[in-house]
Design goal:
about 450 residues, 3 domains
Amino acid sequence: MWTAVTERGPVEVRRPLWGAAGLLVLAAGLVALIRDVPVWNVAWYVPAWYGYLLILDAALFARCGTSFVSGRRRELVEMLFWSLPFWFFFEAVNLVLRNWYYVFGYRSDWSGAAMAVFAYATVLPACLFHEELLAAWGVFREKRCRPLPVRPSWPGLAVAGGIACVALPLLLPRVAFPLIWFAPIGLDGINFRRHAPSLLEDLEEGHCGRLLRLLAGGLWAGIVWESVNFVARCKWIYTVPGFEEFKIFEMPLAGFFGFPVLAVGAFCFFSFVRSLPARSWWVAAVLLAGASAAVEPLVVRETVRSQRPILTELEGLGAAAAERLRLAGIPTPERLSRAAAREGIGSISARTSLPGRLLARAAGHADLSLHKGMGAARAALLRACGVERVSDLSRYQPDALWTRLAVCAATLGQAPPRPAEVRVWVRAAQASGGRPAR
């Protein structure tokens, strides 16, 4: 048994063994990532976050004797479901803003869709679990502020502000893009009117603890998000205007201030949908699920910029040569790149009976393909334009290289990469000294 601290005092509860299960899930994902297990090496985000959330939930249960997994399962299921339209809203807006893109997506549309569903379902739990755990620890529990007299017009103004935070980024995407993260907070005006859990109501009563915990929990979640993403194969890369050069992990430093805002918006959105009458709840669920399903293929087409590379895509490697590499313990481009750097092309040639020149070309293609999630197709375009190694990238100015690639792509009948992608490749090559960078 476990002693939990509740409002009624210490009580004996069963041990939260799902925390150990979460640790095992997290560890299994990490092993698949480090050992570069084919296919599973791009699924790191899912075991990382679900394992981590199970650990958080177990900590919440150990602290207060109840949690989402034990006692609040319906709320948890709703949270997982409503995470999808909540995040697909931002994905839809990003089709215009283009502030981030994904690399090393799945090669199957169905697998990619399943990955999106499982990954996006964690967004609301990631935003809200931390606030719950901070509350269980008593953080800001007694924090008071001067009561805020909420005037009758304020809820309506909050809703109008939320609408403006959607419209302005779409109309002025290069300058108003940060406002999109404030858009869901406008729903708090409706929550206040309905007497649903509301931050406006908290402030009217002089309670600011929940707001402070959401802000702190959002920052906590953001740090975990970006650290998990940084080591992932399938990942996102930010190309925020004016903030492309100074990053922690893949996130511009200023971008970390967006996570607290996202957590506040997540609370407002979840409170809003949970307060809907039953019939309206189902109508909203169907409509928003349909909208999410409509946005997903657009995200795959526009925001996912590369697929996970495989051996047979590398220059000179047909199915027979790829099979020889697999039998030699080199089943992926990542392992080929590492083996070439560690033991040399000659050693791989001796083990596989493949010509050294062929292996050298394939290893160079692999290095480029893996650099910042470029992918085999974009790497092939670079090599066709005379950029054969990552070290070659570091000698270019991004705009000049993009112009060259655009001409070359037009000659080959291909779509060129976006200028922002080329900037990411060149700056990463310059920062790494010409070595492949994740």
